[in-house]
Amino acid sequence: MKIFVDTNIFIDILLDREPFSESSALIYKLCENSLVEGYIAPITVNNIYYICRKAHNIAAIKAFLHKISKDFTITPMDSLSIEKANKLSTSDYEDALQYAMALQIGAEYLVTRNTKDFKHMTHIKVCTPEMFISEIG
User: Fold this and answer.
1) Where are the domains of the chain?
2) Which CATH class is domain 2-136?
């Protein structure tokens, strides 16, 4: 099963944001142990670094990004991604790009804490880590 994982899941883990970090870490473990195929956007790498750089040690962030690059497939972002994103109805263009990339790779789920920005996007099941864990049992 292919899942596309939103940036906020990794930030929850790296910054140990309660109460979200535990369920986010479970999503990571599922991908790390190849129980599901985890995909991320190329912009996720940059966003993790940018958001966490003031709150966390740079060396630790880089080590985490290296680990992510081994445990997840970084989805290509190309002109088709942009074309698909441009057609989506959302106020957050970054979310539109991620959804478009998830469509391109045939993801069954997009896992995020921010489901509200994806409410008009219905070709892929969008769910929180808790919802996903509950669904796959």
Assistant:
1) 2-136
2) alpha beta
